[in-house]
Prior knowledge:
Layout: H1 19-23, E1 57-60, H2 79-90, E2 99-102, H3 109-112, H4 118-130, H5 150-169, E3 175-178, H6 199-209, E4 215-219, H7 226-231, E5 238-245, E6 269-274, H8 280-298, E7 302-306, H9 324-341, E8 346-349, H10 360-371, H11 384-394, H12 423-435
Parallel strand pairs: 1-2, 1-3, 3-8, 4-5, 4-7, 5-6, 7-8
The chain binds zinc ion (2 copies).
The site of one zinc ion has 8 residues, from helix 9.
Amino acid sequence: xxxxxxxxxxxxxxxxxxxxxxxxxxxxxxxxxxxxxxxxxxxxxxxxxxxxxxxxxxxxxxxxxxxxxxxxxxxxxxxxxxxxxxxxxxxxxxxxxxxxxxxxxxxxxxxxxxxxxxxxxxxxxxxxxxxxxxxxxxxxxxxxxxxxxxxxxxxxxxxxxxxxxxxxxxxxxxxxxxxxxxxxxxxxxxxxxxxxxxxxxxxxxxxxxxxxxxxxxxxxxxxxxxxxxxxxxxxxxxxxxxxxxxxxxxxxxxxxxxxxxxxxxxxxxxxxxxxxxxxxxxxxxxxxxxxxxxxxxxxxxxxxxxxxxxxxxxxxxxxxxxxxxxxxxxxxxxxxxxxxxxxxxxxxxxxxxxxxxxxxxxxxxxxxxxxxxxxxxxxxxxxxxxxxxxxxxxxxxxxxxxxxxxxxxxxxxxxxxxxxxxxxxxxxxxxxxxxxxxxxxxxxxx
Length: 446
Ligand SMILES: [Zn+2]
Ligand SMILES: [Zn+2]
């Protein structure tokens, strides 16, 4: 385990940084508290939008995706996607009307080269054949240990996301999902933060190659979507929006509100950097204050989303305090936005998430059910057969219900006013001040 002072260079270091050490905050940083009197009205939930009932969903999946495996002891254990798919299957999500589960081809080199350097692809292939580190390319580090077949496994993940993008773009299905994808940290020439090939970036690049003129990417992983942002930082055709724990306390150390896009693309990167301790209500308030307005201003033709489940309170690598109920509320909001702003074209990917049993399977089962237009009753029990499977595969006790306790998550909308002394409102304001003028929006409008 590397020393933890440079905690912005490794995802693994965070396990050693206790939440309470970071800012001395021990509870939720919410929109209540001392400034609450400034708000003009009470709580609300996210506004309903166009109907999202009974949508078509193509799930890109086969067992080969579990070969993306850094080995024993690594936090990104593929059992998380195995258990998520098993839970979705047991609850009938994968056999619902309009839902298909399909295989796909691995991304070939020509596809990977849309984002990655040829030399890096060769290095990944070499490392995966020999087991030898290529540290120049981030391979063989504590975060990204080399494993045999690494190139093939990572190319499969990228292939699944491209297959989803293609199916949505050509109109074969309105929505597609690759829960093994969302490897948003991979850079053009280096692996980073457990990510070898950047499947969302490759999928977006494929869309641009095939005629898309405006693609929006929204990343709700607790970590900044740095690799996707970097791939399109100077490209006005791609809007990237990332909500994450502040880079002051979390890997990868980027994602400040001041990162708004390169020359010719100002306003096409939007970063919401939230303080440790942010919980459901404050997180949803931030989402609602930034994401819908930015998407409406950009008018994408297709929405690509990354659903890292590591903003959950139980995640061992980060310090936000969301629940599964806050997460599914955000998934529903993104689904409605896909219909409202992107003609219903939506590709959803997984992402981080290191609470393998209590969090990831339920979060992504909710995601798939939402994308199918058939959201699950949060009060539903998890099937006994699935709990049995969990016990056998992990020796852990599975969660009994699909909820963490809240049927509806309410929050105070930005429109009701803000409190300049509240740390979450400060974060929202910083983002709106930095990015909104470039999008033709008023940062202070409520
Ligand atoms: Zn839909
Ligand atoms: Zn993450």
